[in-house]
User: What shape does this take?
Amino acid sequence: MRQKLSAFIKVLNFESIVWIAGLAFLAAYSPGVDRHFTICPIKNLGFSFCSGCGLGESISHLFRFQFMKSFNAHPLGIFAFIIMLNRIIFLFLKSIHQYQNSTAQIIGGKNNG
Assistant: This one.
């Protein structure tokens, strides 16, 4: 069992881990808390409007089933969330496929050797 888990982790796509970590952060994030620091380069340059600002807060509201607050934070938050989930599922299924191929090659190599 330990070898199977180790083999699966080796073929697990790093991008999926990053997306999962990002969603986990947004799930733990407290929306509505006044923040004074932003990593948004557009806001840091002094512009008042940024089309991407509010997406994280919107997704965070979605984790709390606050759909109207989510829409008010950013109208495209639910679509961004769906796209991220779709990407995570795609990468995870790709990793499973690679794992199955690698284990099939190992088993085939043992039978031929």
